Amino acid sequence: MAMLAMLATVGIRITPARASTTDNMYVTLYGWDDNSPPGCDIAYPQIHSCASGAGTYSDPATFATDQSELPQGTIVYFPPLDRYFIMEDDCTECDEDWTGKGPDGGPSYRHIDLWAGGASGDNANALYSCEDYWTSNGQVPVIVNPPSNEPVANSGKGGPVFVASSSHCWQPSDNGGPSSGGSSSVSALLNAGSGRCLDDTNGSTTPNAVQMQIYTCSGASNQNWTYSSSTTQITNGLAGLCLKVKSNGTSPGTPAVIDTCTSGWGSEEFKFVSTTFTGGSTGYEIVNHNNGMCLDVSGGGTGNGTLVDWNTCDRALAQDWNWSTK
Q: What does CATH list as the number for 188-324?
């Protein structure tokens, strides 16, 4: 959690536009109650005088880190939260991780602390639970100096991660994505790039045993998937197991597997992001809660048996999925 320096009197400064990069960072969150002192004071005001922001490109929310790691005014985009953030604050734990052997790693261990929200008199325990929920499992991809057209939560309006008035912690289902696997009992996930369906390889019912593949759509139960808007999990109809990122991986190419469903486990939680893909087709990116990567057909393959993994979201047709009754 952030430990802020006293509010500094500095000129507002925005870092000039630079080439976008994707870097792995440890992502934590902080808010009103665990700010130091409690409140919304920030060390390096840029576009806000107090920690805030909707999370849109024009109004990115505050984040904190060591200013030697990311300069004041740097904008980042964190895919699991569908929000942009701007460097406006200091974080003692981030400083320690970057400059020495901190509590999480280091030196040069990348760590950013995102403003979650909160207000005077809010439910502090609910805020802390929300922060813990969205804290990453190790270092995960963060886009630095991102383009302006990344998807933003709540139909592009953004908003705080933690809504103090209702003690609500934002979830991917708030975006209004699909609430079930389609209109039929047979609900396949059809890949636009290959014209084939997400398939539980060989109809496996053994947890964490095989990597998923694409295969000719058959209507069989091993190609039947259901999405729950409450748990944000995707369940296979034959195995009763949940789609998952193998070993909680954060590296591109990590296999997509199915495993025993475990509530609150970030590598089993997903959001569906409505996207326009290369060539103009529309469909969904299936984005993992923890690593921010997209469900992807390996190498853009189109043949039966091509394996499915998790990769950096790039709007390629290999990452274009739609519900189908095939």
A: 2.80.10.50
